[in-house]
Amino acid sequence: MQQAVNGLFLGSIYALFALGYTLVFGVLDILNLAHAAVFMLASFVALFLVGRSGLHILVAFPLAVLFAGLLGVVLERVAFRPLRARADSNISGLISSIAMATVFEALALWIWGPNVSRFPFGTIPERQFQVAGAVISRLQLTIVAVAVAIFLLLTWLVTRTRLGREVRAVAESPRAARILGVDVDRVIAWSFFISSALGGAAGVLFGLAFNAIQPDMGRGVELKGLAVIILGGMGSMPGAVVAGFALGLTEVFVVAHLGASWRDAISFAGLFLILVLRPRGLFGAAALREA
Amino acid sequence: MEWLQETYATYQSTLAYIGLNGLLALSVYTTLSCGQLALGNAGFAAIGAYAATLLTMKAGAPFGLSLLLGALLPALVAVPLGLPVFRIRGVFLAIATIGFGEVVRIGLVNWEYVNGAQGIVAIPQKASVGLVWICLAGALFVLSRIRGSKWGFALEAIREDEPAARTMGIHTARYKLAMLVLGAALAGLAGGLEAHFTFMVAPNGFSFGRVVDMLVFAVVGGAGAFYGPAIGAAFLTLLPEVLREVSPHLGIEPGPLRMLVNGLVLLAVILFLPQGLVSLPAWWRERLASRRSA
Amino acid sequence: MSAGLLQVEQLERTFGGLRAVDGASFAVRPGEVHGLIGPNGAGKTTVINLVSGLLAPTGGEIVLEGRPIHGLPPHDIAGRGVARTFQNIRLFPELTARDNVLVGQHRRRRPSLAARMLLLRSAREEERQAGERAAALLTQVGLSERVAERARNLSYGEQRRVEIARALASEPRLLLLDEPTAGMNPVEVQAVAALIRQVASGGRSVLLVEHNVRLVMDVCHRITVLNFGRVIAEGTPAEVSRDPAVIAAYLGNPK
Fold this sequence. Notes:
The complex is a heterotrimer.
Chain A: H1 2-28, H2 35-51, H3 57-80, H4 89-112, E1 128-131, E2 134-137, H5 138-160, H6 162-172, H7 174-179, H8 184-210, H9 217-232, H10 237-258, H11 263-277
Antiparallel strand pairs in A: 1-2
Chain B: H1 2-32, H2 41-57, H3 63-85, H4 91-109, H5 129-146, H6 150-160, H7 162-167, H8 172-198, H9 208-221, H10 228-250, H11 254-272, H12 280-293
Helix pairs in contact in B: 1-5, 1-8, 1-9, 1-10, 2-3, 2-4, 2-8, 3-8, 5-8, 9-10, 9-11, 10-11
Chain C: E1 6-15, E2 18-28, E3 33-37, H1 44-52, E4 59-64, E5 67-68, H2 74-79, E6 82-84, H3 97-104, H4 113-117, H5 121-140, H6 156-168, E7 174-178, H7 186-201, E8 205-209, H8 213-219, E9 222-227, E10 230-235, H9 237-242, H10 244-252
């Protein structure tokens, strides 16, 4: 039971992160390898707002998420939009996003240094509950609650709003969407905003959860995010959520029963298995699209 | 003559790294030359480095044999990695190879026989600058012979339009796999050389950041020509030497500054000079010509 | 009829709910120029994609010289002597006209990599011959002046001709041409017509998808007419042009 709680808690962060990843892939068919750098920078910004400016975390969190979203828009303008017309935009987009990730990480290194930074004590007051034999901290509860709230908000956004319909139309076929009068550039910019905001939210929550923020913290999550979106099916949002929780739970159980050093092996073992057995993932459909 | 020797002693390591980075850049170029992005070359280099090191230190194998097997082993590993991936779309190669590189690194960290994260030290220094450069020259020769052959045209066709290439009778998956294997061998060779030049190997030397470096070398130099990556590696290996001099004036540490410059240079090249530095002369000529005709 | 080089039986391909090709059957004889015509959306290009292997059929059979080829990967089908051009030109844009044709020779060139590594003369000789063949093919399509030009810098009509040369470079038994004269001026169209006749007189078969009705009537021995993925008529140009079903299909959907 305790493990299930911990797994859900970890999984909610993975799911948030992977949602952002998969959203951009679904819309643009491009992998944004700077997603993890946004995750990391948002965490630092939240830390800065709480630590230096003394803001309450409830104020700092949305500000950091907003910052991440805007960073996503910048990312799209600088690294993806200029390449969109190119024949090899898939590869050059991957490369330019790696370039942006490197720049972001270098900036974090420059500003905050390579060492671990921590939120000040008492950012989220520590309290623990006993539920059905498991100990749940207020922090964990808050994180899962925030993640679930974001999932619901996103579901509403995608299924009920005009922007959501337009995003789905562009994902289906940018050309058809343009003919139908959708402002494709605007939709793509919004997709990046939402995607990066999700990544940023995951970053802040991750920073709070483990209270260890450093410039290379995105690396490990990036690989897990990739495993999650492959498992869930590239571009599938429900798939990312389910796979995110599945990875979180599996990792926690593996650590408990096999030892911590095996934890990271899980996501990669899963990744390869899926690539060999079912490349479209659990929920994906179009992974084998022919050119 | 004395100053020459002194300069050589000072810059020996830089010279060796120009060669090593050149090999690593070429290992990324092999797959790029047929339009595929493989990002697991730090893993291949790690396998080569550890294999060669263990052969030298534990098995007492002659250095040449260690190097050879250090290049062969990653090449063998690349086959089962590439086989499933090349049947599906290009982006999966990037993902699978990122995962692969990380698996190798984590595996080495957890492998006590090779001292885990500490790595292996006191490896006999058997690789000289000259040997590194000979290996680089050999790799360049092989790649130059591929260019212009039936094989080379197949690669270019795959890069430009893969489905069309298939209708010409080109077994595209086989060529892509061959280039992944060749790249793995080059990375493994570089790994073995590096271990025997710096006397040490450690898992952290083969992180994803290392792959980013290789990619930057290849793309900045120019992945359209086989010699481009080697030029990019030379340019970007010398650049930090310059940056180290400037960094105090900018108030930024050399480490982050190098990363920042790497990132910005990569971005600038991919946006404005997609064929890399080697296309600069042609780009310049074209500009002059268009100005004259205007 | 059974002496077909290519035999297409009850071919079917659906995209989601749409039946692009719906039980089409026809045969192409050796040395024949066979027209495949029909209104827009009749499924002609889909047939070409199915025969060349870029798409797999959802039903039916494609038999080449007595052996089924449906569902084989495109490089295997090319290896059995099928070459094609594309409706939306797909040359390798950064390669020169000559190099495009060299790629087309892929399956009939000897591997020379080992010999090249050893700097043997045999490799250089093989390359010289391949280069000469490429130049000869480009001359045949009237592009001897444009050999060294990058494909992307060529005009539309020139690109179409390079595509034909590239397809011929594999010395195919069956050449699939998908609208080879789209966007060409009348002079170029005449040149292509002459080229198609020349190819067929060499014993090769051509399956020609074309909107230019005059050209089709001019060069085809026989014609299959598709509408909504089904064969509605087949016969000589004269027979087909008198067929009431064909007239209805075209008049019901002009252009």
